[in-house]
Q: What sequence folds into this?
């Protein structure tokens, strides 16, 4: 991998355009989009249907390439990577969560969650333990051997989140991850995301139609007609860090002076 800046943002989208060509017709989906998402942020992308949100996520997730402009993930310019390197980056750095959960129906929760570790060559016994632990962390310790059809929508999305997190990605991207869930389950899933973001420092980029969801994030990037319409910072990331420090167990301070005598 090439040289990276000392502390690059988690994601940088710089002057990105994307034109889909269908037959002889060009569809400009993105017309010059720029924004950054800092490491440890929980960010949302909002905008009307067809505005280019999924296109942006596909570019950040290294699933597609821009027509022009550059996308950086952890300071790495994705344009510089060949297909093999892109696949490696997807596997190592990015977790994906989708509206329709995208679980494999014939596999149990544990088997679904361990999938990303198979391509890494993690031995089965270790995969199983890690997947079970991850499922416990998302509150599904009692559903390890259930298949997706035996789970509610919210539970299926928890499995998908566990699968996205198992390979310890630096960024998780979610395309309408709560789009198929009722409002109560939506908030449960969002609380889980907030918790993972705070406790593990994982950067999340969520596309959502739900303003209640967007308002729980640090940064809202609003997209319209393939352009950034506005960007709002709702919560500074450092204020969250401070909150976290406030509740984190205090590390004993270095002794100031050595006690003399006894
Ligand atoms: P959103 O996720 O905001 O609904 P998309 O990023 O899916 O929007 O799509 C943005 C625009 O690009 C839309 O006009 C859509 O029809 C078009 N588009 C998306 N994917 C393709 C594709 N594979 N081929 C042609 N046009 C596409
Ligand atoms: Mg979309």
A:
């Amino acid at each position: 991998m090439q040289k990276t800046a000392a502390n690059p943002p988690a994601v940088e989208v710089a002057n990105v355009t994307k034109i889909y060509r269908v037959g002889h017709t060009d569809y400009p989906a993105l017309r010059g989009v720029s924004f950054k998402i800092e490491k440890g942020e929980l960010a949302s992308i909002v905008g009307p249907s067809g505005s280019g949100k999924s296109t942006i996520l596909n570019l950040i997730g290294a699933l597609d390439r821009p027509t022009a402009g550059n996308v950086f993930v952890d300071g790495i310019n994705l344009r510089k990577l060949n297909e093999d390197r892109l696949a490696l980056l997807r596997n190592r750095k990015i977790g994906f969560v989708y509206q329709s959960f995208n679980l494999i129906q014939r596999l149990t929760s544990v088997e679904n969650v361990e999938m990303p570790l198979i391509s890494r060559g993690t031995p089965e016994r270790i995969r199983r333990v890690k997947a079970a632990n991850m499922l416990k962390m998302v509150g599904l310790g009692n559903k390890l051997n259930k298949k997706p059809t035996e789970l509610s929508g919210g539970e299926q999305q928890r499995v998908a989140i566990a699968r996205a997190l198992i390979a310890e990605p630096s960024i998780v991207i979610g395309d309408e991850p709560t789009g198929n869930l009722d409002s109560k389950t939506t908030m449960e899933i969002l609380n889980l995301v907030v918790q993972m973001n705070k406790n593990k420092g994982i950067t999340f980029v969520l596309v959502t139609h739900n303003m209640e969801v967007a308002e729980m994030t640090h940064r809202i990037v609003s997209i319209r007609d393939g352009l950034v319409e506005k960007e709002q910072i709702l919560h500074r990331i450092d204020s969250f860090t401070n909150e976290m420090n406030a509740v984190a167990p205090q590390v004993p301070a270095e002794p100031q002076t050595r006690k003399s005598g006894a």
User: Anything to note?
Assistant: Confidence is low (pLDDT under 50) at residues 239-262. The CA atoms of residues 32 and 186 lie 32 Å apart.
